[in-house]
């Protein structure tokens, strides 16, 4: 597994590619990382890449948003407010998990063992100690699990920033 450091522009460019591939291939994308690390920003870029033309906002309070993408509906969930994976059923988890199109789930670690076996996992972290700054560098670690297409390589979007093996 490799990690790459991206600035805001690189994160957005990579996110658009992630969204295009996830939409085309019907990928469930599990996003993890600390508060403010860029999960929603990456999802916004991914939704743009999936052909979503409307504003994409964090579903922190509504828990799930559905958007119209060029290849069909795109799901976006935020599990931050969940206390336990047993609460997943109340938010329509089965529909998200079975959705044949792209699904992006922030705070995916809160789903525990309920995450689908076939998925991409994307971890975002602050790379420069500027936690929370809008222009902070993000360390991106991404991998595919199960039977999914390869995750687009964030390396070409690093604009000279570091890439390292994990």
CATH architecture label name:
3-Layer(aba) Sandwich
CATH names the topology as Rossmann fold
Terminal Cα separation, in Å? 5 Å
CATH C-level label: Alpha Beta
Mean pLDDT: 89
The biggest beta sheet, please? 8 strands, mixed
Please state the overall shape, judged from the principal axes of the Cα atoms.
Answer: globular
Query: What structural class do you assign from the helix and strand content?
Result: alpha/beta
Number of helices: 3
Q: What would your notes on this structure say?
A:
The chain has 166 residues and is an alpha/beta fold. The protein has a single domain, classed as P-loop containing nucleotide triphosphate hydrolases (Rossmann fold, 3-Layer(aba) Sandwich). The protein is built from three helices and eight strands; from the N terminus they run βαβαββαββββ. The chain has an eight-stranded mixed β-sheet with strand order 3-4-5-2-6-7-1-8, covered by helices on one side. Helix 1 crosses helix 2. The longest helix has 18 residues. The protein starts with a strand and ends with a strand. The mean pLDDT is 89.
């Amino acid at each position: 597994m490799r990690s790459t450091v991206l600035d805001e522009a690189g994160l957005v460019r990579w996110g658009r590619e992630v969204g295009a591939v996830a939409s085309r291939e019907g990928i469930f994308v599990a996003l993890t990382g600390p508060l403010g690390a860029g999960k929603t920003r990456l999802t916004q870029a991914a939704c743009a890449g999936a052909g979503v033309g409307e504003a994409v906002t964090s579903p922190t309070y509504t828990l799930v948003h559905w958007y119209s993408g060029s290849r069909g509906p795109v799901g976006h969930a935020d599990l931050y407010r969940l206390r336990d994976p047993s609460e997943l059923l109340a938010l329509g988890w089965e529909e998200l998990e079975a959705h044949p199109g792209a699904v992006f789930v922030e705070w995916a670690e809160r789903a525990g063992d309920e995450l689908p076996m076939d998925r991409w996992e994307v971890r975002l972290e602050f790379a420069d100690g500027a936690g929370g700054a809008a222009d902070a560098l993000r360390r991106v670690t991404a991998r595919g699990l199960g039977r999914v297409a390869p995750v687009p390589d964030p390396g070409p979007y690093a604009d000279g920033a570091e890439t390292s093996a994990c």
